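Bench notes, afternoon.
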Amino acid sequence: MATNSVSQTKATVKTAAKLGVGTLMIMNIVAVVSLRGLPAEAVYGMSSAFYYLFAAIVFLIPVSLVAAELAALFPYQQGGMFRWVGEAFGSKLGFLGIWLQWIESTIWYPTVLTFGAVSLAFIGMDHVADSHLAANRFYTLAVVLVIYWLATLISLKGLGWVGKISKIGGMVGTIIPACILVVCGVIFLACGGHSQMNFHGDFFPDFTNFDNVVLAASIFLFYAGMEMSGVHVRDIKNPTVNYPKAVFGGALVTVLIFVLGTYSLGVIIPAKDINLVQSLLVGFDNYMKSFHMEWFTPIIAIALAFGVLAGVLTWVAGPSKGIFAVGQAGYLPPFLQKTNKAGVQKNILLIQGLAVTLLSLLFVVMPSVQSFYQILSQLTVLLYLIAYLLMFAASIYLRYSMKDAKRPFRIGKHGNGLLWIVSGVGFLGSLLAFVLSFFPPSQIAMGSTTVWYTVLFGGVALFVILPFIILACRKPSWVDPKSDFVPFHWQKDAASQAQLKAAAEAYEASHPAEADTTAS
């Protein structure tokens, strides 16, 4: 039965549209990299590289390695995070993992779209007025909702549209602007420009200042998402080989963009003047003014806004697709399993859009766009890190529970020592970031700390409990008869044991004399 399911799955893969290594790598970069995060680290000057490298070592690299092994271990099974965690710890924790991955992306949309709204505000040539517009909460709210619902409408067209726009948007809105920013920094310094960043500053940060550590903990969110492409593993050409290539290629480019981009921004803007939301556009504007190319700033602004759209598209198509596949296996009510003519999970996308709209209304109660941006970013980090903690733990558990399974990509050729190191470092790094993310950063005016703690503690509690409530209401009728969701390995083992027990009982019933002799 399981063999038939896998065969059907492979047949489906052959007929589906395929993603190449280059396309998937760019989708990974777009999903992970957002230039909007550069100002948050630029305030640390030279030590910002330490934070990036530290987070890469204890988080990005472990996530990339573990995700590559788990995706290659289950190359033709749906579910992504649900599959990986569920194979180790059961369907309930597996559902929690995919749920958190989906819900954190839903919370993340307003933050990244805030950056898109700021980008569009700088299309004008009067940059003082542009800055005031970018700081206007009602303008930002309107743009956030327009861009998000546009991304949703495009996602409803199918994966083909998403792949094309993500690839183009990733180049135009993320990779090219990042290269331009770095080149501007090099030319500016080569022409004798005065650097606002002290290149003789300390590489290692001041760990005695706890506030620095708190704000820097948000860097983990910058690197989150490299494993998200696991839900597309069935849409990749030769996934056991090409998926790891795309992951590692994307990870390398990601680190380079963050480090060089942050330094370039620090060169042109004094640390004391950095604004988490606006400084990237201000940095481009300052460079263009020094080169007497002010006309180019609106072009950069449009490109960055397009990049935001591409990034949102990648995420709208990713986690929602993963939880939809899981839902068809009976974990979500039939209403959330509805698709349109293109086979896209329309009702999940609509519910997601409603949640984004409600979350965006926090603009009205938070004291500033910056504070709204930061509090939702922190909540996103907290929820996502719980899923990562489950993923790292699952990778170790599966080495023992499925020790004989074929692993086309394996961390360490022999033994489990290297896996323990990689997953252990990732787990401890994620746990550290999780704890620190509850503390409000003093660098940002957050208003009432009561609102901060209520949103974070209440949000984490609510979104962790909700999936278990859904599972408690689960009914057999929720299973879609057309679902080809491959059972977990422990489900197949349990079924085999049940069949053996039934056969033994049937044999004993038909041979009572032998049963009595055995008993005696």
